[in-house]
Design brief:
Elements lengths: L1 H13 L16 E2 H14 L1 H12 L11 E2 L11 H4 L1 H4 L18 H15 L1 H29 L7 E3 L14 H5 L27 H16 L4 H7 L4 E3 H20 L3 H20 L10 E3 L4 E3 L8 H5 L4 H12 L36 H12 L4 H15 L7 E2 L6 E2 L5 H11 L1
Antiparallel strand pairs: 1-2, 3-4, 4-5, 5-6, 7-8
Helix pairs in contact: 1-17, 2-3, 2-6, 2-17, 3-6, 3-7, 6-7, 6-11, 7-11, 11-12, 15-16
Length: about 450
Amino acid sequence: SLSIAARAAYILRDNSTGLITKAAPALYPHQWSWDAAFNAIGLAAVDLPRARLELDSLFSGQWRNGLLPHIVFDPAADGYWPGPAQWECATLSEEAPSAPATSGIIDPPVHAIAVDRILAVARAAGGPEAERTEAWAAHLYPKLLAWHRFLARDRADKQTGLITLFHGWESGTDNSPRWDAPYAAVEVGPSLPSYVRKDKAHVANAGQRPTDREYDRYLWLVEEAKRASYDAGLLRQTGSFQVGDVLFTAIFARACDLLAKLAVHLRKANDAAELKDFAAEARAAVFCHVDEASGLAADVDLRTETWLRTETIAGFAPLIAGGMPLELRRRQVDMLLGQRWAGHPSFKYALPPSTSPCSSAYNPACYWRGPVWPVFTWLLTWALSRSSEPGAASALREASLAQLADETFAEYYHPVTGEPLGSLHQSWTAAAALDWLF
Ligand code: DGY
């Protein structure tokens, strides 16, 4: 495992531009929002100044209304599409900064989790780095607060309490079958500009990426967002994809707890109370959407007001949110490790796949439709170890580290063959390994 840690540290160094850590060397040559937060967690283990810089760079792309964009573009990088010329954020929205160029949609809010982890590592280290990290966190705090306020104000759905997404990319689980039904209702307009995908060239087999049909819809939703000047109020009227995401909402709940803790530390009692309210509302929304029969949480198609019950990893949102009744927690942990999930007899390692092998939508080689994502396993272990489930957390950590001994640090893995898939040397996979081994 010394060798895994050393390789992981090299990967984060190789993927660095000096200012940011590219999400992946070729497939994702810019800074992605939730990737950056996970990368900062991994960097904390080896280089606290770089961990801080990672989040500072990301937040340099924050919008005036608090929106933290899902991509902050590196002007020096090329090869990713859609790029700044497609998003046109600064032209279309007065909220967007003129530089750096960014996308106009969001990613799951794991940033306060990262700040909490970086502070813990720095405090344990002590000395001047601990002091610098305290000062840094105090400086970043108002930006985190603005981001959380944006989500509560612009994105919390009044009916369900769930955070609303206007694009599957916002969930971070782009082509997960959880979104199949809402995507099927998206009609691509005739004015979709023609385009050439660049992503397929960077993987061993295009079948590991979303299909062209899916991409048409992804790009059409970008067109819709542009027409609405990336304004959530307008998108609620016009958007043809509007979902309440249980997983995003669960992450928000947990992140609000931690940001409230930081607010208390900074003696901001009013902010702390506000953040605790956000957390309580988000957590309640997650628990209200647990399907009794399956025990899994369900997303909601807000346009048709229907629950989306496909068996995907998002069903374990309550485990991420934490604070659930003991009975539900035990049921979810047993399920997660059981035969419909990590314990499926066909699996090489007992790790939870992105979609259950018992679902008709399961495709073990394709992106979020089946493969195992180490970074998601990390998030589960992080949450489980903080929810009095250390046994489950360490079982998943051991299994994932056994898989990562192949040292490819793949974006995702085939659950049955263990084959590395997607991008190799993915930064957040290396970051997960580093934090586990720290
Ligand atoms: C991609 O390009 O595949 C990303 O997940 C979307 O941001």
